[in-house]
Amino acid sequence: MANVVVVGAQWGDEGKGKIVDWLSLEADVVVRFQGGHNAGHTLVINGVTYKLALLPSGIVRPGKLSVIGNGVVVDPHFLIGEIERLREQGVEIGPDNFKIAENAPLILSLHRELDAYREEAAGNGVKIGTTKRGIGPAYEDKVGRRSVRLMDLAEPDTLDDKITRLLAHHNPLRRGLGLPEIAPAAVRDELLDAAPKILPYMDAVWELLEDLRRAGKRILFEGAQGVLLDVDHGTYPYVTSSNTVSASAASGSGLGPGAIGYVLGIAKAYTTRVGGGPFPTELHDEIGTLIGDRGHEFGTNTGRRRRCGWFDAVLTRQAVKTSGIYGIALTKLDILDGLDEIRVCTHYLLDGARIDRLPASQSAQARVVPVYETIEGWKGTTGGARSWADLPAQAIKYVRRIEELIGAPVALLSTSPERDDTILVRNPFED
Fold first, then answer.
1. 290: number of CA atoms within 13 Å, CB side?
2. Which residues, including other chains, have CB under 8 Å from residue 258's CB and lie 6 or more apart?
3. C-alpha dist (Å) from residue 32 to 68, 401, 421
4. 187 by DSSP, 3-state: which?
5. Does 225 show up as a binding residue in the annotation?
6. Is 18 labeled as ligand-binding?
7. Rounded distance between C-alpha atoms, residue 199 and residue 154, angstroms
8. Residues whose CB is less than 8 angstroms from the CB of residue 244 and which lie 6 or more positions away in sequence, other chains included
9. Where along the chain is GTP bound (predicted)?
10. Packing angle between helix 135-143 and helix 109-121, nearest 10 degrees?
11. What's the rounded Cα separation, in Å, for the pair 98 and 58?
12. Of 258, 249, 282, 289, nearest in space to 67 by CA
């Protein structure tokens, strides 16, 4: 039985929450391996909606172990609030079904303040589109070797030196930005306030996961955002602050690369993104608005309206390659129901020459022109379909053409937010 890594094959918001929830029925462990609470998942189970940001999607399933790996930056106060909200919905969360890596870096209020200041001070055209939740500054402190990590909360006698090292960077920066300096005691109080509520979940996750793997437990690795937001392989600088590709499932959890089995990419039947950055197939017309309205394309955490466009096979094909994707879970096919025709981007033109990838250059990304193939739409409905026989013939042709263009088969097809409205072609855990 293969362990499974789930990654977004576009710019995020592809519907990973539902797919991870669906797969978690066969998994024993669900692991978040990167990102922070800047990317949310919405789950709809038996008519009940759960909105998650930090907690792995498996947390709503009894009998599953949910894990936050070391590759995640954790806002302790946000996490405490999220746990309380889910408990109010009847979800049981305790140290027996939820663990946090002891070496996970923490997001503090100073990170959120710096994040917000930078984004608000940036002029038009240079805004990244950050959620202002402190993710980027927290990752900066991680690689700058000045993070306060979860394990540090268990050793309050050593906190002062760590806070001094942290503020030796942040206070001069704040002075230069015209922001008030932060007193060490304020940081200490902030940390110690969260400590008793979060420390019970701390564990040596790398060791725990290796023991579970050797015992034959099935592990589902859950990524946040999408491959096109990867800090190395995405549309830099309009990216997130972590590696979102499947390889980071290993480094972000403490397991070796051999622990990764099947890589499942999630892609919408069209394309969306939030915030700034290039978007070759973006629609600025009534069809783009229609897709956004039908698909309820608003951020789970931020409420920001997502930009919408036609399916971009160039970008998804690139994601398939950079993440080693074995198969695709195609979501939201039903949003395209009733359209007379559907367009798919097959390649680009860059300064008049054909190109079959998105170039790394920011200026070149802005100049690419999408080249489309037009596919006949369908009048029937795909919403709620649970077998190929339930799909209009032309919808099946659309799915098959996407498979050809991206170089990967469709392993699952999602036809509504409900977990059961899923057509299984290939079970990733049995591949």
1. 10
2. none
3. 5, 32, 24
4. helix
5. yes
6. yes
7. 7
8. 7, 8, 34, 35, 223, 224, 225, 226, 227, 229, 230, 231, 234
9. 12-18, 40-42, 306, 332-334, 414-416
10. 110
11. 10
12. 249
Confidence band, pLDDT 50/70/90 cuts, at residue 125: low
Give the pLDDT of residue 219: 97
> Is residue 66 within a helix (H) or strand (E), and if so which, with residue range?
strand 65-68
Return the closest-CA partner of residue 155 out of 111, 188, 197.
188
Is 71 among the annotated ligand-binding positions? no
14 annotated ligand binder = yes
CA distance 85 to 79: 10
Share of the chain above pLDDT 70, in %: 96
Per residue in 204-220, pLDDT (tens digit) is: 999 999 999 999 999 99
Determine whether the annotation assigns residue 265 to a binding site.
Answer: no
- The residue type of 254 is G
Taking residue 52's Cβ as centre, other Cβ atoms within 10 Å add up to 27
235 is known to lie in a ligand binding site: no
- Give the integer Cα–Cα distance in Å for 368 and 358: 8
Q: Write out the H or E segment, with its range, that includes residue 307.
A: strand 307-309
Residue 248 labeled ligand binder: no
Residue 142 is a catalytic residue: yes
Q: What is the CATH T-level fold of the domain 267-430, as seen in this structure?
A: Adenylosuccinate Synthetase; Chain A, domain 3 (3.90.170)
Identical fold between 4-103+201-263 and 267-430: no
User: What whole-number distance in Å separates Cα of residue 384 and Cα of residue 295?
Assistant: 14
| Domain 109-198 fold | Adenylosuccinate Synthetase, subunit A; domain 2 (1.10.300)
Q: H or E element: which one contains 249?
A: helix 248-251
- Per DSSP, 323 falls in state T
Of residues 13, 75, 141, 230, which has the active-site annotation? 13
Of residues 21, 37, 41, 132, which has the active-site annotation?
41
Catalytic residue from among 99, 132, 142, 233: 142
The answer to the question of whether 12 is labelled as a binding residue is yes
- Look up the CATH architecture of domain 4-103+201-263: 3-Layer(aba) Sandwich (3.40)
Q: Annotation-wise, does 416 bind a ligand?
A: yes
321 is catalytic: no
The structure tokens listed for 134 are 């402190």
Q: Residue ranges per domain, the chain?
A: 4-103+201-263, 109-198, 267-430
How confident is residue 333, by pLDDT bands cut at 50, 70 and 90?
A: very high
Q: In whole numbers, what is the pLDDT of the chain averaged over residues?
A: 93
Answer yes or no: 96 catalytic. Answer: no
Q: Is the pLDDT of residue 46 over 90?
A: no
